[in-house]
Amino acid sequence: MSLSVVRSKFRGMMNTLGFREWKLEFNEDVPNTIQHKSYIIKFHSVTGQGLNQHLQELRCPVEIKFWYDGKADNWAATDQVVILCENIIKQVIPPTFRLIEPIKNIIFDSLSIDGMAESNDSIIAASLSFTVSIILSI
């Protein structure tokens, strides 16, 4: 099994909820061309622990970041972003999503919602962090 399973599960879930993966590269600066309900999936420092001579448990911090265009009504948009974040969490934490091989478990860690810079004042960004544990056969 591989870490690609984690990415594909999160990608499938986000697409099912009506989001589109942002496939163009950028750094922390959000381009003016960012699309409404676009998302990216980031892996952070993956750590491992040997279980035995054949199995390794990997703990993979995963961040889902998405953008929402508030159309100049930031308060209503923020309310909508909170609802979308709650829906994402509700999709990830049920056992039917998080306890399927090779995934051992998924834990919700944190959520942040931020307005954007003045150049993108109607765009709201949300980041959800999860820790995914998987069993890797070696």
What are the salient characteristics of this protein?
single chain, 6 strands, 26% helix, 6-stranded mixed beta sheet, STM4215-like, 138 residues, alpha+beta
Topology:
Blueprint: H1 4-16, E1 20-21, E2 38-43, E3 47-50, E4 55-69, H2 74-92, H3 95-98, E5 103-115, E6 123-137
**Share of β-strand residues:** 35-45%
**Helical content (DSSP H or I, runs of 4+):** 25-40%
Regarding CATH, which class? Alpha Beta
End-to-end Cα distance, whole Å, is 9 Å
**From the helix content, strand content and strand pairing, which structural class follows?**
alpha+beta
Give the mean pLDDT.
84
- Biggest sheet features: 6 strands, mixed
Written account of the structure:
It is built from three helices and six strands; from the N terminus they run αββββααββ. With 138 residues, it is an alpha+beta fold. Strands 1, 2, 3, 4, 5 and 6 form a six-stranded mixed β-sheet that branches. The longest helix is centred in the middle third of the chain and has 19 residues, at 74-92. It is elongated. The N and C termini lie close together (9 Å).
